[in-house]
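Design request, tokens follow.
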């Protein structure tokens, strides 16, 4: 029963996240992505803690995958932020 509740929460969160991001104008995507780096850091921390306390091998594998995806998201946010800051520099990124 608990697994169904967790799946339901995941589905609802995914749907709401999609609807919220779809309504954001294109010009705001880059600043919001750079601001979400802190959230990705919290996700990495949470996945590290949950993987450390995981008992089953499957849970450890899923935790590792969560760590990898959150790290990719964090690094992507920094790359986008760097690109955005170069667009507004005085020498036009050269």
């Amino acid at each position: 029963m608990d697994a169904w509740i967790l799946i339901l929460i995941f589905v609802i969160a995914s749907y709401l996240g999609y609807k919220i991001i779809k309504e954001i104008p294109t010009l705001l995507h880059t600043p919001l992505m750079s601001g979400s780096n802190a959230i990705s850091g919290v996700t990495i921390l949470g996945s590290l803690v949950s993987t450390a306390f995981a008992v089953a091998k499957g849970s450890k594998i899923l935790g590792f995958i969560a760590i990898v995806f959150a790290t990719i998201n964090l690094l992507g946010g920094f790359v986008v932020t760097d690109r955005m800051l170069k667009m507004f520099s005085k020498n036009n990124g050269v």
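Comment from the thread starter after seeing the answer: thanks! Residues 3 and 9 are 10 Å apart (CA to CA).
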